[in-house]
User: Fold this.
Amino acid sequence: PQMASREDGREQQRFSEQQEDQGVVRGVLCDLSGVLHVKGVPCPGAVAALRRLRRLQQSHGLALLFVSNTDTDSHAGLIGLLNAMEFDIEPEELFSAPRAAKALLQERQLKPYLLVHHKLRPDFEGLDYEADEADAVLLADMEEELDYTKLNTAFQVLQRDGSTLVAMNRCRYYRDRHGKLSLDVGPFAHMLEWVSGKEALIAGKPSSVFYSGALKKIDRVASETVMIGDDVNTDVIAAQAVGIRGILVRTGKYRPIDEDHPGKP
Assistant:
């Protein structure tokens, strides 16, 4: 215990010195998939890194919020998955694209046809409409559950005057459980935009509205907040666009070419 205490002291001292050199950090936004874990398997060192952040949270009043586009599980299911990996995250510490999408649908009083994974449907109870009564389409990652019939039905809903397309995110791909890059929501959102002629409302990252909502939730300003993610576009560059400092990790969907991005993560 005495050795651990000394190490905590050194850690806090290093953090204070970095604050002086690189600017004050009072808030941290942290992605989940690709940063803490990849499809239920913790990234090397992630559990220990989060514990260090927790210590700084206690010693320096650091605000910590987990922000995620993960949309293949319910809020409760995702929290359960994270805690089974020993991340010990409370439900209120997770700000997700599905939660933001639900708020958007309710605010605009839309009746969506849901293109969402079956595990996510419980989070949209009361907002699940048949195609013939829908005035919107909510598009999420359905993995193998997505097919031509569902996409064509969504296209038909979007032909109606005043109909709205809402997409969880614009991510192009993610790292799957087999270590391969797989299609995310972005390509399908782009397809429905192109064929319907309607621009999608983006509920999660890289939407500036999403990042503004995250800052509001932790009561921090952008200039004193960092965003940690594995996607150079939706995590890092999008955060930088609203004044948040971006930190790109070398796990998840990261590729060496990302470091040559003109946005300079």
